Amino acid sequence: MPITTTRRRLLAGSAAAFALPAFVRAQGAVKPRLTVISQWSAGSDGAAITALGKKFEEKGGVWQHSPVPGFTTEMMNKLRAQIIAGDPPACSQLKGPEIAAWSKIAPTVDLDALVSAAGYEKVVAPDLAKLHKPAGKWIALPLQIYSTNMLFLSKRAMDKAKADKIPVTWADFNELAEKMKAGGVPYPVANGGTRPDDGQKFEAALAGISPAVYRAAIMNLDEKALQAAEIKAAFAQVRKIADWMDPNVGAQHFSTNLKRFVEADMGMMIMGGWAQGVLRNAGFKFEDFTIVPGPSDNGKPVFLLNADAFIFWQRKEADLQAGQTLMAQLVMDPAIQTMYSQITGSIPVRTDVDLSGEGWSDGQRTTAAALKDAIASNQAVLSLAHNMAQENGMAAAMIDVITEFVKNKTIKPEQAATRLAEAVESAR
Question: pLDDT at position 403, please?
Fold first, then answer.
């Protein structure tokens, strides 16, 4: 299970005795070595980190990756055990507010000099940058970005609906769903029935209705914003979405229903950009689906950020310090981010990477353009469903309310909004 606040406090005592060290560049001709923990072991994620490891080795390093298959919880359990034993990995997968929480458990590495040399902060979304420098100094580096509110359209379902208009607003989305239903698409919205699925639908609804209220209520937990009319409107939109989903699908990974989606048994999918990689790995073609930004009622792209990152843990060994320097440089390298994203279907963290060349899909180009536009209009916000907006405990409390609402159709949007505010207050 995720590390609890109590455990954090107990463990933090040992970390508090050490000041965060400056990033030490290993001297001499020591061979760089890196010990890495992540949950990436298979599929496009496994292929991508394996490719990163090969690049590390090509630079003369020794790559020691220890994947922990399964959910993030299992990976965190191993990380916690190694930290308690006094043997943290040189770097590990971690993301969102958990970076700040875990940095209180063991001393991390000050990456400011390397980030400055690479000009990295200038090309990273501001809200994303803050998560990776919780005490003002960079201690973790984001590698790839997904938008959790991308809209995937089944081309066969669009044909059945005799529709060629891409939905821009939620009203457009609702109109298209009705056309799909009337045109013979049994379930206009695809679903997997997991908690992240439910959370994604709510965050997409609220951010698309009002990114300002989303930022205030979900990211900042503002009491007044949690009572706003937009929260009720978001739950009302989620109810419509749920009514278009297959009620017999429950607790399945979204990939289980990709064939149904492509074949127009399901019409639209609100999902992260990673679904592109999963669809392609499953043998489906770009001709089978279209990827566009999720609905936004003000007509400007809203980008719900989910980013994978590596946090760097303090080690005294010269070869590990050299490995950390090399790893940091690779993670920030435009060529490495290009390679990684082209494998996984994500987009680079760097907003200056050119996606016009070969190897990129139209969906990735659209996503990257949406991110730039969203940053410019202050509509790039952090995902709740994927633990970017809040720590695990708070996020879980909020998603409990959302999941119950999706599954229990007797709950009214007004009641759900009240329960959400109460859940936040209880979890503070």
Answer: 96
The CATH number of 150-304+367-427 is 3.40.190.10
Q: Kindly state the helix (H) or strand (E) to which residue 117 belongs, with its residue range.
A: helix 112-118
Which residues are 62's β-sheet partners? 33
- Provide the pLDDT for residue 71: 66
**CA–CA separation, 17 vs 107, rounded Å?**
9
The ranges assigned to domains in the chain are 5-144+308-354, 150-304+367-427
Q: 5-144+308-354 — its CATH code?
A: 3.40.190.10
Nearest to 343 by CA among 360, 357, 323: 360
| Domains 5-144+308-354 and 150-304+367-427 equal at CATH topology level | yes
Gyration radius of the chain over CA positions: 22
More confident residue, 166 or 2: 166
φ/ψ (deg, to 5) at 144: -145, 155
First to last CA, the chain: 19
* Rounded-to-10 torsion of CA 348, 50, 385, 311: -80
Q: Which residue has the tokens 């690049």?
A: 55
Q: Give the H/E segment covering residue 347.
A: strand 347-348
Q: Which two tokens stand for residue 36?
A: 């890495």
Average pLDDT, rounded, for the chain = 91
pTM of the full predicted structure? Answer: 0.86
pLDDT score at 306: 95
Q: By the 8 A CB rule, do 363 and 276 touch? A: yes
| DSSP at 246 | -
DSSP string computed for 126-192 = HHHHHHT-TTSS--EEEEEEEETTEEEEEHHHHHHTT--PPP-SHHHHHHHHHHHHHTT-SEEE---
Q: Please identify which residue in the block is written with the tokens 């000041």.
A: 19
Mean pLDDT of 116-132: 94
Q: How far is CA 62 from the centre of its chain?
A: 29
Rounded to whole angstroms, the Cα distance separating 66 from 64 reads 7
Alpha carbon 52 to chain centroid, angstroms: 19
The pair of structure tokens assigned to 174 is 């609702």
Cα(145)–Cα(163) distance, integer angstroms: 30
- What's the whole-number mean pLDDT along residues 102-115? 96
